[in-house]
Amino acid sequence: MVTTFSRVEVAERLTSADFFRYAPEDEKAELIDGVIIVAPPPLDAHERLQLFLLRLLGDFVELFDLGEVRGSRTAVVLADDQTYQPDILFIARERLNIIEERGIFGPPDLVVEILSASTAAHDRGAKFHTYDRGRRPRSMTH
Questions:
Q1: Does a structural domain hold residue 87?
Q2: Domain containing residue 113: CATH number
Q3: Within 13 Å of residue 103, how many CA atoms lie on the same side as its CB?
Q4: Coil, strand, or helix at residue 130?
Q5: Is there a domain that residue 134 lies in?
Q6: Which domain holds residue 64?
Q7: Element spanning 57, H or E
């Protein structure tokens, strides 16, 4: 199966402020190198794995009052031209100040990206290195 991503066409590189203005609210979108990329809906296996991990991590974090766990519709601004929506993220209690109304401003303490054939190259490549610049732990799941 071929998965296609759509691009929001604009004349110049966008910023994170532009992303919040132009990105569709009802679809998963990311700002990658100043370009808004809209992802197609995930496959069922992806959704089931995400829900399982979200519940598992969320219950653990809540039980020990460790911080906050969020799902894939939370924007994470890592640079002015890089805003991602990871499948799952965790922010430690002592860093909850990076959570704002529009999203997370700074690298989360843990990021989980559930890889699929259509996103694996980007998730393991540019996105992985962008998260790595923040020196926060991360996880890739297949």
A1: yes
A2: 3.90.1570.10
A3: 24
A4: helix
A5: yes
A6: 41-141
A7: helix 44-63
Confidence band, pLDDT 50/70/90 cuts, at residue 125: low
- CB half-sphere exposure, 16, CA atoms < 13 A: 16
Q: Which residues contact 76 (CB under 8 A, 6 or more apart)?
A: 83, 84, 85, 86, 89, 103, 104, 107, 108, 111
Residue whose C-alpha is closest to residue 67's, from 55, 56, 58, 77 = 58
pTM: 0.81
CA dihedral 106, 16, 112, 42 (to 10 degrees): 170
128 pLDDT above the threshold of 90: no
**How many CB atoms sit inside 10 A of residue 110's CB?**
19
- Beta-bridge partner residues of 52: none
Number of domains, the chain: 1
